[in-house]
Amino acid sequence: MQRRNLLALAAAAPLAAPAAAQGTWQPDRPIRIIVPFPAGGATDVWARLVAEPMSEMLRVPVLIENRSGAAGMIGADAVAKAAPDGHTLLFTITPLVQSPIVLGNAPYDAVRDFSPIGQMGTTTLIFMIRAELPPRTLQEFITYARAQARAGRGLTLGSWAAGSSAHVFALAMNNKLDLGMTHVAYRGEAPMVVAYLSREVDAGINSLTSTREHIASGRLRPLAALGDTRAASMNEVPTFIEQGVDVGRGWSGFAGLLGPANMPAPVHARLVQVFRDTMQRESIRQRLLAMDTDPAWLGPEDFSAAIIRVRDIWTELTRGMDLQLR
């Protein structure tokens, strides 16, 4: 009996060893999570939310570094070129794949140069305007914007980055409806929100994570939701589709954590485990819901497939679209 047990253990050992190794990697210095947008935007808020529990589990500081520029490509490129030792990570959103397609000359390949760790979730984007403007509905806004353009006082249309969801879908609306608005790109969502509040920009598409307090205070007015469904936490705002404007049909972006390509398997597996355990905490789930974010964990393989899906959709969606800054 003892011999059979020993043989069974010996046979199982090659299978058990990798599993044990995967859970035992321990970082030997602080981990940096690079956010490729300025502090205060939705991406930054999400990254800071997960940094604390990840730090607890990894037993080292997990630091957030905001490195914005080039529509998110500067920060992403820094991670793509970092040593794949688990100490430099990227928390980002769909511009990871959108910006290279739109702007060209990307310093990285969004699929080949990263190791997906996990998706945090998604958020519904909302088209909104400065509350000082008179329109109360999307149809009223369309009429108002056209009138302003005819009078030589065309409105301004902001986005958090050239080639982002905010840019492409707002431009699609502008072109389809002949609104005569002028696009203004910002280096992140936080500066874009400041531009609203300082009356520098009139309208745009934003996350509720960054704008809800300003909607609640009456300084911003939501008019339409992007995608096929309304935002669960702001169900009173109908989608573009519901209001007869074919913009954003079927769209869903992502927010998640990645590392450089070619990370050692034990390092990658440990980071996947820690991020997954973070996302399984009910406290994290409730805080995400409170920030108008839908927790939707995806593991590395499914997250990789989601990134490829967004890349393919974005390539097709922007084909032939004039996205040059003016």
Describe this entry's structure for a reader.
This protein is α/β, with parallel strands linked by helices and 326 residues long. It folds into 2 domains: 30-122 and 253-317, D-Maltodextrin-Binding Protein, domain 2 (3-Layer(aba) Sandwich), CATH 3.40.190.150; 125-243, Periplasmic binding protein-like II (D-Maltodextrin-Binding Protein, domain 2, 3-Layer(aba) Sandwich). Helices cover 43% and strands 19% of the residues. The strands form 2 sheets. Strands 2-1-3-10-4-11 form a 6-stranded mixed beta sheet, with helices on both faces. The chain is globular. The N and C termini lie far apart (80 Å).
Kindly list the characteristics that best describe this protein.
single chain; 326 residues; alpha/beta; D-Maltodextrin-Binding Protein, domain 2; 2 domains; six-stranded mixed beta sheet; 11 helices; Bug_dom1; Tripartite tricarboxylate transporter substrate binding protein; BUG; signal
